[in-house]
Amino acid sequence: MRRFSISALLKEAANGHQGWERQWRAPEPKKEYDVVIVGGGGHGLATAYYLATVHGITNVAVIEKGWIGGGNTGRNTTIIRSNYLFDESAALYNHAVNLWEGLSQELNYNVMFSQRGVLMLAHNHHDVISFKRHVYANRLNGVDNEWLTPEECKEYCPPLSISKDIRYPVLGGALQRRGGTARHDAVAWGYARGADARGVDIIQNCEVTGLQRHHDGSVKAVETTKGVIGTKRVGVVAAGHTGVVMSRFGLRMPVESVPLQALVSEPVKPVFPCVVMSNAVHAYISQSDKGELVIGAGTDQYVSYSQQGGIQIINHTLDAICELFPQFTRMRMLRSWGGIVDVTPDRSPILGKTPIPGLFVNCGWGTGGFKATPGSGHVFAHTLATGEPHKINEPFSLDRFRTGYLIDEAAAAAVAH
Ligand SMILES: Cc1cc2nc3c(=O)[nH]c(=O)nc-3n(C[C@H](O)[C@H](O)[C@H](O)COP(=O)(O)OP(=O)(O)OC[C@H]3O[C@@H](n4cnc5c(N)ncnc54)[C@H](O)[C@@H]3O)c2cc1C
């Protein structure tokens, strides 16, 4: 793989940029692989990358029914943070933030990770108590999080209105300075390029339609629209379509798939220095490097695969944004879109084994899995390589819905973006 560098850029600039190679190949599937990953989103590609780099397993195929990063990886609002309440979640998401901090260098690909800080607003007494509890719990886990007064919130984010005369006045906020955003497409492309360079086959426009098993029940092959591919290990990383894939394999998953929407404004000069989230009014906002305000909404209330979502959900979010940032009432919105998110009952992911020997699953990231991409790929690669969970993903087994050892981030924060 040719490294991106100043000298490579200067050389190409002198040649009219004619010499850049394709960033990954477009191979036809082989008859057999050591590991097959179903789903070419950020998590699937990161898993393949760490299988190759950490575990030396390179006979791997990532099978993607559309194009890589075309699922939720390319549709999300890119908020990255690790200030989750429970110890298990803090460990998982902080593992990811640690990896984000060196990711551009590791991949030799600029993922534009920007630690501009994530400020979570408190609007009522319950929010204040709950966020302060998060701050204390996070600090015990070595995760940075601090409490700001309304005036300090305003200082950190000048466009914020701290007027007391609005429906949901700002009573304070929890700030994680290490949090921020990254460029979602670049994350998928960087992992794809790194995995491909080490021999991983990325097979796009190929849908996995079924699973073949040996007499003892273990995995034998996957059936795809490009034929049958033999393998002993399959990792399903299909986000909102996990339920569909797993039902084709004969398993029913504890996930519901619902639309989640986002929208962007026309681009403007830099006006918004950080990320602001408000769980109570359900809106979150940041500004992209292109200048667009990137705004996210809540999920639809109904299970659906529509990739659209209800207009009333976006209206509700824009009401909240205009109340918190009155100057944005004059902005024009350019486009909106939806993704299908896979929501578990406790809003925590499922990462590990399934009852079928050789079949592993990584799903349930719901509205908040982009931030976990490097950490998720890293621990899932360990699980696929060794057949056993990494200690970080051990608590996130499918089994917890049988044993009752839930990690209830839904009750903790009501939102997980
Ligand atoms: C609007 C929106 C806003 C969000 N905001 C945030 C945020 O701010 N911060 C955050 O952390 N998270 C956020 N998320 C959640 C985040 O996007 C996801 O949790 C994360 O991107 C999931 O990554 P993934 O790689 O698992 O899934 P995906 O990127 O969806 O990849 C799964 C892939 O599997 C493929 N696939 C499905 N079925 C098959 C099949 N049968 N055969 C082959 N391939 C198949 C799909 O085509 C897809 O490309 C948001 C999501 C949405 C929709």
TrEMBL record:
<dbReference type="GO" id="GO:0046653">
    <property type="term" value="P:tetrahydrofolate metabolic process"/>
</dbReference>
<keyword id="KW-0288">FMN</keyword>
<feature type="domain" description="Rhodanese">
    <location>
        <begin position="35"/>
        <end position="79"/>
    </location>
</feature>
<keyword id="KW-0274">FAD</keyword>
<keyword id="KW-0285">Flavoprotein</keyword>
<dbReference type="GO" id="GO:0005737">
    <property type="term" value="C:cytoplasm"/>
</dbReference>
<protein>
    <recommendedName>
        <fullName>Sarcosine oxidase subunit beta</fullName>
        <ecNumber>1.5.3.24</ecNumber>
    </recommendedName>
</protein>
<dbReference type="InterPro" id="IPR036188">
    <property type="entry name" value="FAD/NAD-bd_sf"/>
</dbReference>
<dbReference type="GO" id="GO:0000166">
    <property type="term" value="F:nucleotide binding"/>
</dbReference>
<comment type="similarity">
    <text>Belongs to the SoxB family.</text>
</comment>
<keyword id="KW-0560">Oxidoreductase</keyword>
<dbReference type="InterPro" id="IPR001763">
    <property type="entry name" value="Rhodanese-like_dom"/>
</dbReference>
<keyword id="KW-0963">Cytoplasm</keyword>
<dbReference type="InterPro" id="IPR006076">
    <property type="entry name" value="FAD-dep_OxRdtase"/>
</dbReference>
<keyword id="KW-0547">Nucleotide-binding</keyword>
<dbReference type="GO" id="GO:0008115">
    <property type="term" value="F:sarcosine oxidase activity"/>
</dbReference>
<dbReference type="InterPro" id="IPR006278">
    <property type="entry name" value="SoxB"/>
</dbReference>
<dbReference type="Pfam" id="PF01266">
    <property type="entry name" value="DAO"/>
</dbReference>
